[in-house]
Write a structure and sequence with these properties.
This is Putative quercetin 2,3-dioxygenase. With 235 residues, the protein is mostly beta strands. Helices cover 0% and strands 56% of the residues. The two termini are 20 Å apart.
Length: 235
């Protein structure tokens, strides 16, 4: 088990963006911090009003965006368009290559979201897009995205060994994580206690290997994102 504290994340700042990186990203490269399991990006982003990421390319990546507050507008070269808001699961498969933009169209409110990238299990697939409204998320783990057979996920992933789960917990609520060779816990807001590790606060993450379903208990209102992974890069 490895705990990664919020304050230790690299940060990219511009006049309109604050992006905190759990792994190496962009100009922030650390050869000892490039991924965990299949997860290569876990960016905690706040984009200011009437701004955002202009059109840019991606390739061979499953990109999942989870909005915490505000709205984010997606548009891509495959003709897909969507507005992502809290409770809406969204995935873009970059596949053989795609261009897209992500904008905050609000004139007054920032948008806060977590964007996560996992490696697909097949390169060069046709680019794709999927979004689905989940609605209410409470103390039970909800499968947001999954490529694992038998999971009733809101959206699919192009990797048979990866799944993203989420929960919104009130103080005292407890969830038990799935058992998996690789787990990644991220607390985008709130505070909880992770069995065997102690407290995780807002922005903290935990990386586990060969974990047997640890228990997590909220100590204040908390949002929790869990990646369950049954493979790793190169294996």
């Amino acid at each position: 088990m490895e705990i990664r504290r919020a304050a230790d994340r690299a940060v990219t700042t511009t006049p309109w963006l604050t992006s905190r990186h759990s792994f190496s990203f962009g100009d922030h490269y650390d050869p000892d911090n490039t991924h965990h399991g299949l997860l290569v990006v876990n960016n905690d982003d706040v984009v200011g009003p009437h701004s955002g990421f202009g059109t840019h390319p991606h390739r061979d990546m499953e990109i999942v965006t989870w909005v915490l507050e505000g709205e984010l507008t997606h548009q891509d070269s495959a003709g897909n368009h969507g507005v992502i808001y809290p409770g809406l699961a969204q995935r873009m498969s970059a596949g053989s290559g795609i261009l897209h933009s992500e904008k905050n169209d609000s004139l007054t409110q920032p948008v806060h979201f977590v964007q996560m990238w996992v490696i697909p299990d097949e390169a060069g697939i046709s680019p794709g897009y999927q979004q689905h409204e989940i609605g209410h998320i409470g103390a039970d783990l909800v499968t947001i995205a999954s490529g694992i057979s038998g999971h009733g996920a809101a959206i699919s992933l192009h990797h048979r060994g990866a799944a993203l789960h989420g929960a919104r917990l009130q103080p005292g609520d407890t969830v038990i994580a799935p058992a998996a060779p690789y787990l990644h816990f991220f607390v985008p807001r709130g505070r909880l206690t992770l069995e065997g590790a102690g407290e995780l606060s807002e922005g903290d993450a935990a990386r586990l290997a060969d974990a047997d379903g640890p228990r997590l208990t909220a100590t204040e209102p908390t949002e929790l994102l869990i990646w369950e992974m049954h493979a790793k890069l190169g294996g």
